[in-house]
Amino acid sequence: MFHHDHIHHHSADPAGAIDWYKRVFGAEEIERHDIRGGKAVRLDIGGVNIIVQEKQSDAEWAPAPKSPSYGADHFCFRVDDIEAAGKLLLELGADIYDGPRSPREGYGVIHLTGPDGVHIELIQRPDH
Predict the structure, then answer these.
(1) Rounded Cα–Cα distance for residues 125 and 16 (Å)
(2) Which residues are CB-contacts of 118 (< 8 A; sequence separation ≥ 6)?
(3) Which fold has domain 1-56?
(4) In this structure, are residues 9 and 53 in contact, taking their beta carbons and an 8 Å threshold?
(5) Which CATH architecture has domain 73-128?
(6) Are strands 108-113 and 119-124 parallel, antiparallel or unpaired?
(7) Model pTM greater than 0.70?
(8) What SS3 string covers 25-68?
(9) pLDDT (tens digit, 9 = 90+) per residue, 6-48?
């Protein structure tokens, strides 16, 4: 019944965020369109859609949460080889702040900071 559709990333620097996703994750640009008067770009990363849009100061339809806020903490991509992914990310200049490491047998994780401070995780699972 439910299927993942997209992650919506409001950005202070949309062009920079789009370039980062393309450079670091090989994102492919799918389309450019307007969302409620703001320019947006839909990217595809391994079947995951990320819409990058400039945050509009007058966008009442999606106000910033009051601080402190609770909710989504990060998004995560699955990889086959966490060590290879970590090496590639470092070569691409990604800001890795945790890992690669193995929290338990067969698993590997990396945590990095993406555009606008977005927390991104990579995970290697033994079942995939």
Answers:
(1) 31
(2) 9, 74, 75
(3) 3.30.720
(4) yes
(5) Roll (3.10)
(6) antiparallel
(7) yes
(8) HCCEEEEEEEECCEEEEEEEECCEEEEEEECCCCCCCCCCCCCC
(9) 999 989 899 999 999 999 999 999 999 988 778 899 999 999 9
